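> @MW can you paste both from yesterday?
MW: sure, first one:
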Amino acid sequence: MHAAIDWIMQTSGNLSLEEERAAREKVSSYRAEKPDATEQRLAVEGLRYLLSVRVLNF
């Protein structure tokens, strides 16, 4: 899971501490719901979350 979170943080640009915390919580929550999810799936879910709150700075 840490690799997915690290990748999300690197890819997403500059996040505030609050935004980063929320993204980490979202990925952790998704992981708890789907324990068989791959790192790639976790990364996709984290980026999807950030897009949903329009935080990404691509």
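MW: second:
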Amino acid sequence: MTDEAKPAITDVLNTADLFAEASEARDSARRSRGRKALALSVAVAVVWVVFVTVGGHWGRVSDRWIAALTMIFGSIVAGSTPQGGGAIAFPVFTKVLEIPATVARSFSLCIQTIGMGTAALAIVVSQRQIDWRSIRLLTPAAIAGFLVSAWLIGRPEEAFWPSTLPGPYVKVTFTIVVAAMALVVWLSSRSWVSERVDDVANDSTRATALLVGSGLAGGVASFLVGSGADVFTYLGLVALLGLSAGIGVPTSVVVMAIVSTVGFVLFGLIDGQLSIELGPRGDVVAVGGQRLDVALPGERFDLYGLWLAAAPVVGFGAPLGSWAASKVSDRTLAKIVVGLAAVEVATTAIFLDELRSDPLLAAYALIGLATFSAGLAAVFKRRHHLLAIPPVDVGATLLPRRATLDRRRRASSEGDQ
């Protein structure tokens, strides 16, 4: 071996060492962020144990164990998909446990404040990519939609702030929205050319209007069923604007966590819905300091007990779901979204008795589902024209089964030429 060859070998060895050190540093940073995220869940559990013990609420928590059981799955869904914990809590509570829609709505918002709030903090601590620009458009619109609908179609003078819309119609409307969104996600996943971007760099008036409209619609849905801001965020960002699902899901979690916190403050604290007084038999005799004319069954109306029982579960489940979502592909996330929507439609058809006894409700369900799904599918197919999105460039990098187009990187490369 010549002397000239020795420095070259040394350079190779040094380069390998640098790569190894960089990889170790990256893994160490990832583990550190993971420990910080776990610490958030542990902190929630510690505070909960102290609060329940000092307040003497263990009996009340054990009586409402069904809420904790429901949210084991609900919290994982909340952190890993664009369908928040309310997407599980609301149908299970209203269709299976026969809890009134208003109580299920308020429960969803209050419990998501803890679950999705913890997941949102874990996402930030873990430095997962989030589309903050879209959040700045979506969140104010969602809060506005929530508050305006609460005052326009809500009845704040009654217990649990019900809406003027009949409960069965609210349940069916939620099912229609989730099913239509799943249809668009399914259509997108079937495309051979999959268009995905790392951020929504489209500054057109149409794209901005879409995000604001999605936020407003999500806020209204969140007032009615305790979930929806996340669904419409995902629909606008991922299904229509082409944002990567791996970024769209954590973005939707952050938006829903903020809207849930607003609902928690308005309903749980200001309206006093978490201030539940139980009678000797465990019935609800007062809400928000106001005595009820007729006592209500505690297992269906004890919002405080239901919320308290589920709190430690969602503190761990939602961040766990968020972590799991970061490990799967966009295609897998799409399958999960479609599967959950299928369960939502099936449970509505099976457990909502009014669909079989009220012909008008059945007609609304069928016509609404067909009309909204067809309209949304038509928008999806024409989204490039309607939203001024550049068409897919099939000459971009092709993977074995799909083409992936990153408009931001493509624009950057074209600018360099």
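> thanks! Residues 55-392 form one domain.
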